Amino acid sequence: MDNLSKVKKYFIAAVYMLLVFMMLYLNQDGFFLGGFGIVYAYLFGLALIGWAMLSFLINPQLNKGILVVRQVFILCLPYLLTLLYSFFIWAWKLSDFSNITRGFFYVFYQLIAFAAVGASYYLLGKNAVWYFWAMMAAVNIWRVGMVILQDGFGSFWTDFVLLLTSFGNVTGETIKHLELHDANFAVFEFLIFIFAYFKKIPCRWPVMILTAFLALVGLKRIAFAGILLALLIIGISRIVKKEYLKYFCYIVAGLLCVMGIAYLIIVRTGLLEIFLDKAEVNSLGRTDLYRYIEQYYDFGLTYIGNGLGYVSRLLGNMSEEAKTALSASGYTPGELHNDFLRILIDIGIPGFGIWIYSFVFGRLRSMLRDENYQTAVMLLAGVAYLFATYMTDNTYYYYQTNFVFAMIVMWSSIADFEYG
Q1: Contact call for residues 192 and 225 (beta carbons, < 8 A)
Q2: Which of 65, 75, 102, 349 has its CA 20 to 30 A from that of 112?
Q3: Prediction pTM value
């Protein structure tokens, strides 16, 4: 590689890292335009997509472009199908414009995340994952540093130790400043990639230790469960013979779908509340919220839903009386904290069936068709992690969490393409 090519390569990497840093740093900030809330992170994601498209027009890498577009489409599939299903529901029920736009943009923002990852790999190849990791680490280190400057290292360390020793049950005031759910779940998610490809990672021990520290600073108990489930899938896949890997992947996919459906049944029948009460686990008002929202949906095949965004609007319009009652049990009004239930209420039983099949099997079949087993296993590991978080949180529409999901799933295909 000549000097001019090296300068071009470093310049592209520097510009990319600047865009990613700003995208992650401004992930919670935005502005209103024409009544619509726009988060700055989405604009930087669009900038990456535009840059990749311009690069393709100037110097097209056709095979690489086809690979990236295909991978992005596979990841977008469940979002696109549920959006299409919602359009029929909105038309059938003559839904008001605010409900339609809310559901549409929820999906659109995630499509930006997936496409921006594709753009990243098109522009920088397999090394894009490390440029992204460096900026994700830098943003989180910056936030930790700002908290330490504000409250002092002693306060930070005391609260950090308290967080770990209580396994996330007690969160001090200093650590609460670092509770940025999207960023916290994304850092945890990256650990799956590090453990899966540990031997291929440059400076692997410092990378793992730093990522683990940043994950623990924003400790999420459900993320631990997701990590363990993901690593279990990866670990077992390593001892399965290659000729049986396809069957292993389909079995795991089936179990993940059963897990999602079973969780809905457990919630609806009240078994979750009974279990948590016996285990003396504080749900922070979640079970009370699930009981409250039962009046708005049916658990039967004839329930077709109200379209994406319905639950969010429903909770936004909750009466003050209901808010007060739920707040007394620890719930902070805003979100449902159960993405499986959110999707079911939004698009009904038929829509939920379409969603969970496309989310797992639709994506998996496309990857297994090319015998890309490593990517398929990473997909299942990533889905397992996400499904765990869907049980108690709102990660389905978390931009940064979905960005990292696409990053760790697509990497193997891009690396295989570059290695030939």
Answers
A1: no
A2: 349
A3: 0.95
